[in-house]
Amino acid sequence: MSTVVDTHHEHDDHHDHKPTGIKRWLFTTNHKDIGSLYLLFSFLMFFAGGTMALVIRAELFQPGMQIVDPHFFNQMTTMHGLIMVFGAVMPAFTGLANWMIPMMIGAPDMALPRMNNWSFWILPFAFIIMLSSMLMPGGGPAFGWTFYAPLSTTYSTDSTALFVFAIHIMGISSIMGAINVIVTIMNMRAPGMTYMRMPLFVWTWFITAFLLIAVMPVLAGVVTMVLTDKYFATSFFDAAGGGDPVLFQHLFWFFGHPEVYIMILPSFGIVSAIIPAFARKPLFGYASMVYATAAIAGLSFLVWAHHMFTTGMPVFASLFFMYMTMLIAVPTGVKIFNWVSTMWRGSMTFEPPMLFALAFVILFTIGGFSGIMLAITPVDFQYHDTYFVVAHFHYVLVSGAVFSIMAAAYYWLPKWSGFMPDEGLAKLHFWCSVISVNILFFPMHFVGLAGMPRRIPDYALQFADINAIVSVGAFLFGFSQLIFLAVVVKCMAKKGQAAVAKPWEGAEGLEWDVPSPAPYHTFDTPPKIEAPIR
Amino acid sequence: MKARLYRVLTAALVLFVMPAAFAESLQINLPRGATEVSNSVYSLHMYVFLVCVVIGVIVFAAMFWSIIRHRKSRGAVPAKFHDNVRVEIAWTVIPFLILIAMAWPATSLLLDMDNTDDSDLTVLITGSQWRWDYEYFDYDVQYRSSMATMRDQVYANLPKGENYLLEVDRPLVIPTNRKVRLLITSDDVIHSWWVPEFAIKKDANPGYINEAWTRVDEPGIYRGQCAELCGRDHAFMPIVVIALEPDDFEEWATNEETRLAEEREEEERLLSMQMTMDELMTLGESVYNAQCAACHQPNGQGVPGVFPALAGEGVSVDSDGLNDHIDIVANGVQGTAMQAYRDQLSMRELAAVITYERNAWQNDTGDEVQAADIHNYIQGDN
Q: Which GO terms describe its molecular function (chain A) (predicted)?
């Protein structure tokens, strides 16, 4: 380790005082507290959204309507998507950023701690508003998480107003979080922590934050247009008044496609920290990883209409978006090759974080392959809006983003809690998850190719066998997550083996220089970085 | 040596043929389809898929090789390398070339699919919640196609037929070996007209018209579904297309023109005829269940906050509201899901369904609406 760490502050606890009880959490400006709040909130939302997924899969277990009404089914698919995207994955990454970025760059806290408090605490209210809209007459949003107009304008219920308000609050929260990340990284790096010495998790979040600032205002704009179309007689998306429903889709996906990279770039950073740690070998191609991340982020602004090939856009626009989309495979491929080369001739061990990181590489790559297939416009006409797409984005989001979050949780839980995650339970959680996630999502490829549209509560008889298998996989995967809950609760209850400052032999980075659990305040005096940490 | 080769080949054959045989009984891949285009789409799909499989096998093999060989428990000592410019250039350039090899055939196929010139026949397809209307430009033929699966097969445990959810009352009929141009639009929300065996999926956007075309090789029945979330009954909006030999199609179209013309004459004649209350109620109930029950529910209770109830409230029980009632059903309600039925239903059917709504579910207004009343209302309206 070529860093000089001033460990002086770790001994004088006198400025470690903090309010106790609820006040500590309500008024906290501490990046670790706020990180924990984000992570716990995201965990709660993960179970809420997961329960909705199980309602969906229970209804789809066999043909015919047995459990819910089609209108309620549509509310479930809508809320499941919104909660998982805005409530589970994005806050989890923001929580990880809050916890880890200051420690990784040797900063005492985030640059804007009061805004940090605000950006978390408005989030629960956004979700209370959105979830409570389900209690209105006619129920909550039922137009899919993509809320295509005019289904979400003329043809929606009044819960749309609450939905729009909730999305606004979530957007404000994300933008504030992103500003904080950018300001922190640009201003608070320890001496010697040059940009090209930053850990990749910091780099990927840095780029993600710019994506967030670029596209969340577009989302805010488009939900506002939905609101005014519905209540204030504008006609942005209504042909009768000179508007165009396809304009909605252009605006939504101009936000929506960078959004999917917002949900995966931090994963790349996590996996790029974990694989070298457990392969005991420096990350292969650090610089190319940074450039590839930036390339993916740049291209993400030029591919949005690949979600819209069937809307009848001009053929040359289709061609442009097909070529741009295919091009994303190049930097993404670079990343995967780099990870495999990092493992090559390493000295690998397979602790729970590594298991999840390895599963991430394989399963995310499978999701990438179906992504290439979906990019090919003429065949996308067959895949579009079928279960093939559902399989694709769950491979990249569940066995991609969510697996990387789990890997991160296992990797850094010793630092957060001071206790090692129970290895037996964690491995059980891994094997149950990795098997069931494939029973859940792999057969969806087949049923989609065979012609089953997505977002339907009932289906033709030839899809019955595969749907039954998928539903079984869904329940197995859902209940496997209770093991994860048990591991986290055990760490939080301070049970199990106490963690040392650096519990993973091959781990690199400033976060491992501070004791476990990390003290309330770290790096009050910045460390000096004299050589790259990798 | 030769024996061993045979053994390997047989094993490989079994491995590849078994899933293929399995795939025949349990469909797990795209259909080849019934047109030249759909066959090209299938080939392109298989080509891209196989390229992905090959790349996947190589990448995962390298990964598993190091997972198995380069593990600490086997005493592996980590190497120190962390860069190699040549390798990095290679794995940037080679994927790029592979992508060009995929984009090339995709581009030419897409240009072909986009070319709707020189068509022999044009059909206008209009989606509305939750049915399709078909209008032939070259014949005086126009009709509506709704799902034929019964509600009790969906919601109760009535046995489900072979084509459950994929059957309609009046399929679209097109000729084989003719280039059929499809114009696709919508009356309300966005729908998407999808028949997998034609490899056509095109969104029906309200206020705009999209184009697609197909040339079906073989006579047959082809089934599809709406592919864009369009509200509550999105799952219950199937498409059935019957492809007939050109001569059979001509015959069908001519017969249909005659039949529809006769229906219109009959309609004129019936305007002066009175129907009894029982006749009105019986016809009204069947029209109601086919057209109205999806939203307003078979018991007239609607869906609170989404679709208004008709039983015991609103215009259906307002004794002075008969004209308003006719207006709503005939002309729809602007800015809501309630569409105009004046062109979708006959005068008789409109009269019957309004009578039914005013008297079913203990509404009991006693109002009897005749086809002539509707006719007069619409005439006055114009």
A: cytochrome-c oxidase activity; heme binding; metal ion binding
